Amino acid sequence: MKKFILLATLLICTNFHVYAKTSTEEHITGFIKEFSSNNIKGTASRFFTESPHFIFGPHILTPKDSEQVEKVLSEIHDALAKKGYMNSEIVSFETHFQSRSMSVTTILLKRYTSEGLLLDHQFSTYTLADTSKGWKILSWLPSEPKDNTRCFASES
Fold first, then answer.
1. Looking at the DSSP assignment, which residues form a beta bridge with residue 53?
2. Which CATH number, 3.10.450.50, 3.90.870.10, 3.40.190.10, 3.40.50.150, labels domain 23-143?
3. What is the pTM of this model?
């Protein structure tokens, strides 16, 4: 009987773990909320792999540890704050590829000033890996939109 109870408990805990796991969209949304609120401390370990890639056009940054990741994030947030940035709103998600262990997702953001005015639209493409600690961001590629609804559109 004890073995049965132990087995049942293990199965229930395993099922709760599977159902408690966040989706890629929830993971990205959590990161955007933390970044928007300038709550950078601790975001590296919660949202990123150990050495993610930040891709800014031809420039690729690969921080080597959590401290460096958070430094990059703080510098990005500080640069946006100088433009009046206050927060971001996710308008849409588009998943280009999804498997059990990897996802490539693009989001459209509206970014707002501290006065509540629209600052701009921004696309960000994230590559995520499903790790033993859940989804983690492998790379972040922000990009200027072709218009307020399209990213990576053809030139025609």
1. 139
2. 3.10.450.50
3. 0.80
